[in-house]
Amino acid sequence: MKHNRLVVMMEIAMMTGLAVILDFVRVAQMPFGGSITLAAVPLILLAFRRGAGAGITAGVIFGIINWMIGGYVVHWAQMLLDYPVAFGVLGTAGFFAFKRSWTLKRKLTAVIAGTIVANLLRLASHFTAGVVWFRELAPDGMSPELYSFLYNIAYIGPIIVITILIMVLIVRTGERLFHPETS
Amino acid sequence: MLEHVLIGQYVPGRSVVHRLDPRAKLASLFLFMVFLFVSRELVVLGAAAVLTAAALLSAGISLRFFWKGTRLVLIIVALTFFLHLFLTQEGRVLLEIGPLAVYSGGLLEGFVVGFRLLLLIVLATLLTLTTTPVDLTDGIESLLRPLSYVRVPTHEFALMMSIALRFIPTLLTETQTIMKAQMARGAAFSRGSVWNRLKAFLPVLIPLFSQSFKRAEDLATAMEARGYNGGAGRTKYRELSWKLSDTLIFCMFLAFAGLSLWTRIG
């Protein structure tokens, strides 16, 4: 096994562990469950640092651990979509990786775009999960799409804003973290 | 801020359910999860209720732990029940309260949907209450093994998951140390506006990430020094053992799946 591959594997493990811990640090609390935490930051940082593959792997592992230590299951598809898939897609931020030589403005654009796309995909995953099981549960006459969208945007919206702010701050003061060769 | 961190919901115990092989528990839950929604027959619902009650009673876990983890979802169950109760207009009218009318169809529908949901939540929660995350990881690795024939690195996946779980306490201590160090310098994590709190987190996050990347590098080197060479031919310190009781439990859930399918087709 190549040394570099093993290092990436260990980085995935460490960032997943940190995501679990940061998930307990509440930045703000939403009224209907769903708290605003920084759990996405290590996952997205890893995606930018090591590419989408590593990011997606870390997200899937985080999703499974998250389910293990306090998730809920109401439907098999909801279980997949709310945990491994929802966090796995955060790794797609890695497609927006930037080079050290880029200008600050270009770097910031890449980070913001990547963070937004990754989180929107996560939103889509939670949204679909909500529709799937709400359709199973809700009586006729209620729109599962609208309900699911409102419920999920209510906490993913603030998470997107906060994750972007933190990622921008990290680019400005700790950019070396994005490039494996310098940290 | 981090003192309430309780890693996992696992409640230690020596009950039959605790001692079952995690593979048996995962596979049984999977069957239950899928086939509970296949049929609406009362006999299937009854069988599911018996299975769940038996598992719950033999696990010997107090309801207090259930309440802690599932409060929010149970509210959703109750909400679902009442929505169906008042919005389904089938059958005959049982009760009228002002503009609201309860129909027999609504009562039945609310009961079926809410009860099914409740059973699934109880059984799924029971799995995480009686199985440590490490055992679950071993179980998942073992169940996913067939995928390794199509070159999915299941061993590596499980290894990363185990290491992440193993390092959560270590990383937690590190997080707390850094947070205390920054608090000694006057950082305030739980006061002020959200923006100020975020900025206060930065001097914690950056050293934390930096140290964790360094730890990853050290770990990789240490593993190589001890001859780690990927999954092939690697032996385990803790082996899962499939017992007769596991077969019995799994067969019970298999029978449930069969019953559910049979009432649907028949």
Automatic annotation (TrEMBL), chain A:
It comes from the Bacteria. InterPro entries: Thia_Transptr_ThiT. The keyword Membrane applies. The keyword Transmembrane applies. One of its GO terms (molecular function) is thiamine transmembrane transporter activity. Gene3D superfamilies: 1.10.1760.20. One of its GO terms (cellular component) is plasma membrane. The chain crosses the membrane at residues 7-25, 31-48, 55-74, 80-98, 110-134, 146-171. Keywords: Membrane, Transmembrane, Transmembrane helix. NCBIfam families: ECF_ThiT_YuaJ (TIGR02357). This is Energy-coupled thiamine transporter ThiT. It comes from Alkalicoccus urumqiensis. The lineage of its organism: Bacteria, Bacillati, Bacillota, Bacilli, Bacillales.
Automatic annotation (TrEMBL), chain B:
It comes from the Bacteria. It is found in: Membrane. Its main location: membrane. It is a multi-pass membrane protein. GO terms for cellular component: plasma membrane. Keywords: Membrane, Transmembrane, Transmembrane helix. The chain crosses the membrane at residues 29-57, 69-87, 107-129, 244-265. This is Transporter. It comes from Alkalicoccus urumqiensis (Bacillus urumqiensis). The lineage of its organism: Bacteria, Bacillati, Bacillota, Bacilli, Bacillales.
